[in-house]
Task: structure prediction
Amino acid sequence: MSMWQIRIYDMKHFWDKNYHLMELVKEVQDEPEFGSVFEINGKTYRSCASSPMNKVLGVQQITLNDDPEEQYDDDFKCPYCGETYDDAWELSADDGTIECSNCHSEIEYTREHTVTYSVNPVKMVEVVKL
Ligand SMILES: [Zn+2]
Result:
């Protein structure tokens, strides 16, 4: 039986089934679980696409911070992989726990609202002279 090939994901090559043009990272006997994060030769990879028929798993290298600290930022950023969520405002709750869509780590968040006022003069009150 042929081995599964873990290769650096390239959308075009994957789509065209030109798997051999994607850099080979490792060959494994058993099907790697799609969605998992893998450590291969000291580097960390996340799964991007899988072709069970051709036994190819496309992966992307990521950097995981295994001991992140709580952070305050204007951006919603995964403390583990640094992925920024531009659509964090779509999170319905102001706090909660989500799974990072990039590295699948669990993140707890609290959204803080900052309100600023923009004030423009329109018409000053008429002063009655007596
Ligand atoms: Zn992440």
User: Anything to note?
Assistant: The mean pLDDT is 92. The chain has one helix and nine strands. The longest strand covers residues 43-51. Residues 47 and 59 are 4 Å apart (CA to CA).
